């Protein structure tokens, strides 16, 4: 009896901490909501203007869940590109997730395969960046924290695209209010917090400048999304090569 | 039901899921070389730098400074707030308001 009670109470504590971590993840997602709300909104408007129905646009957010890929897919659908060429473009645009997923892997050691699949499947720029900051600070990331973060970001994205499709025709130009800058501002905020806590400022500046120069050079030859991957890889390599 | 659109969505879903899932499931199981781990810790910084540069300097796949001049100006208060306050939400709000003010003024 006693042992049963004990194990019950330990399960309760376990549940409490899981809920606690989940809620903490939800809270840590909140600052990114505005950035993605506006870009999701823009994505919904664009999907509609490319001739997608409400169900198709929202379906794209549910199954693709990747802003820039959805922008590209919608405009390629409008121009009647072949299915294979659109899927290939989506693959290239989203290929950067490979490096994000790899970068988070050390923080999720010891999790079951299923847990790591459920984390990876909802990985996007925003959740990756918030998670990378958490990992830097705590050296390990709680699974339920990650789920809280991922699920809120996912729902936010689906709702934002849906609202964008529905209201797109009413709102003339969302750019007037500067909402399109939300994403850039969020990236800037995340970059600076990533730099501040973790590496020497000089080193960070060298990585950042190298990345930007490589990006600008590589887009003379390849597409922007391929350029992002090349620049990020070379920028990180420079970080490994140079001394503190 | 539009077969063309849904083929794109489902096919796109498959090619998106693999790069997201494979590294985290495989690399979390094996011990990584120190240099590789160090490389991976710089990925957030370099990817962010690249994504910001795309937003600020690239218009229609080409390098351009004039194209986003107001946004570049708005970057200054955004960076200052990000450095001083370490509050993401505040940084985003300052960025949006700066761009809105600049666009109304010019």
Describe the structure.
Chain A has helices at residues 2-49, 54-63, 67-78, 83-94, 97-104, 113-121, 125-138, 143-167, 182-198, 201-218, 224-241. With 244 residues, chain A is mainly alpha-helical. In chain A, helix 1 (2-49) packs parallel to helix 3, helix 2 runs antiparallel to helix 8 and helix 5 packs parallel to helix 7. By secondary structure, chain B is mostly helical. Chain B has two domains: 1-30; 32-105, no CATH class. Chain B has four helices and two strands; from the N terminus they run H-H-E-E-H-H. A two-stranded antiparallel sheet of chain B has the order 1-2. The longest helix of chain B has 25 residues, at 3-27. The termini of chain B are far apart. At the A-B interface, helix 1, helix 2, helix 3, helix 4 and helix 5 of A face helix 1, helix 2, strand 2, helix 3 and helix 4 of B.
